[in-house]
Structure formats: C-alpha cells, structure tokens
Amino acid sequence: MKNQRNRIEIDKISKQFKENMVLKDIDLEIGSGEIFGLLGPSGAGKTTLIKILTGQLKQTSGSATIMGRSTEAIDDATYIKLGMVLDDSGLYERLSCYDNLAIIADIYGIQKSRITEVITRVGMLDAWKRPVHKLSKGMKQRLVLARAIMHEPEILFLDEPTSGLDPATAVEIHKMILEQKEKGRTIFLTTHNMEEATKLCDNVALLYQGNIVEYGNPKEVCRKYNHQNKIRILRKTGETVILENGSESAEYISTLFRDNQVESIHSTEPNLENVFMELTGRGLE
After folding, report:
1. Could you tell me which residues come within 8 angstroms of residue 270 by beta carbon, excluding any fewer than 6 positions away?
2. Neighbours of 71 (CB within 10 A)
3. Reduced to 3 states, what is the DSSP secondary structure of residue 79?
C-alpha cells in the first residue's frame, strides 16, 4: 500500500461550466515531499484544479484524494494540514501584518511567538506594525506566504505565487518554497513562468485547454524535445558556430578552447516554453 502522507492522487478529473469543459480527464500522482508544477496560460484550468483539490469546487466527474481522503469529503483535520496561496489574498487591508497573522494564530491555536518567527523569515519584521493597504504587492505576497506556513501545513497549494513580482522578491519566495520542501512538505505550484518551474519543480505537467499535453521532470521533458541536438559556440571574433552534438565535433571544439577562441558554448536543448509552443502552437503567457 502506498504511503498516503502528503500524497495527492487525481483520477480522471473533469470539470464543466455550462458548455465549457475546463478540465478533461486529468490523471496525476504527486508524491510526498514533491514540488509539482502545473504549467499553462491563463484560463487553462490551473486554478480550477486547485479549487477542486481543496474542496472549494466539485468536479463534474472523476475523483481525487489528499492524504488518502476524498476531496469531496475534506474534514477539519485535513484542512488544518493544508496551506494556500491563492489568487485572492484574503488579507485584512486595514489591519497590520502582525494582526493578520494573529487571527490565523487564534484560529489554529498557535503561540504568538510563532508570528514573530514567521514575519522575520519572510523579511518583514520592520513592517510588522504596518497596515496591509500600505504594503507593496511583493510585501503582500510575502505576508500571504507567511500566513500559509504559519501552522506548518503538510501540503502547500501555491497559485502563481510570484506573478507580477520583481525578480529579487521572486528569488526570496523561491528560497522559502525550497525551505518548505526541505521540511518534507508537498507543494502544488501553478505558474506560467517556465524558468521558475525548471528551477523549483521535481515534475511538471503542461496544461492546455483542459488537457495535460506533457508530464515529467522539467529537464527530461526538455531533452525529449531536443530534436536538433546541436552545440552552439560563440567565438571571440563574434562568429557563431553550430556543430553536431557528438564525438565528430570534439576535436574542433578542443582546438577552439586550446586557442582561447570560445566566448560561450551552449547546447540547443529547448526550454519548457519552447516545448509548450511546439505542442500547442502558443506560449505560456
């Protein structure tokens, strides 16, 4: 029998809104301690799947379980093990950062000392008295993440957690996500940022018009679609040389390095954006 701790299992989940089939026979297994990325453009069905998994929506057909319990019968004991960063932050705009987290502490019976610990970790100790409506978007997102990890959940659902943030803030959010993985938490991440997915995720699924069109480890998925299998070398003269990625090119490449002629060298392996475009004819944005 599979270890159900922190697992998410999805069996042929479909969701229809009137005439629009948003999800079509989705099959996924997300293991304990895994960072799983669901990639797709806006409107692909990413948020809908999260809402089904967290009991906010009921699927049209199929089934799903979290930690061995049906998502259609999630009880309080299961909810307390979930943390969520969704598109609607739900922060109390007129309350301070501290007071927003104090509400969560009261709900979960958490000691108030945990608030200071979490606020410090997300880099907002200097702003803990500041009302939420005076925070930047990046600071609000940090606060939402702090709220999500306050009660030390076993599974985190992160819906576009770095959307619209500046690169420096996004990097800090990435560090916090990886810290949660190190603690053994399972993370369900949605994003249309292929660099973010490649950096963070153990496995990804590419979602397009309600269908999963590809699944696997990000780097393995990219290698699968490396049709060219070439090496691109930029010489210090400014000339670009494209060679076969094989033993027949080894001597020439060695000569370039020996003569100090190489400015940069790259394989032509595609990224997830390229793979998505090949499969669907459009980008992830």
Report:
1. 222, 225, 226, 278
2. 23
3. helix
b/e string for 241-251 if b means 16 or more Cβ within 10 A?
bebebeeebee
Dihedral sign for Cα atoms in the order 222, 216, 46, 122: negative
226-268 pLDDT, tens per residue? 876 778 888 888 888 887 777 888 888 888 888 898 888 877 7
Amino acid identity at 266:
H
Phi, psi of 261 (to 5 degrees): -105, 0
DSSP string, 20-70: EEEEEEEEEEE-TT-EEEEE--TTSSHHHHHHHHTTSS--SEEEEEETTEE
Q: For residue 61, what are the β-bridge partners?
A: 14
Amino acid letter, residue 144: V
| Total-model pTM | 0.84
CA distances from 119 to 113, 159, 168, 262 (A): 10, 21, 18, 47
Distance from C-alpha of 277 to C-alpha of 285, rounded to nearest angstrom: 11
For the residues of 216-257, what is the DSSP string, one character each?
E-HHHHHHHT--S-EEEEEETTS-EEEEESSGGGHHHHHHHH
The pLDDT assigned to 228 comes to: 64
Q: How many C-beta neighbours within 10 Å does residue 13 have?
A: 23
3 state SS of 172: helix
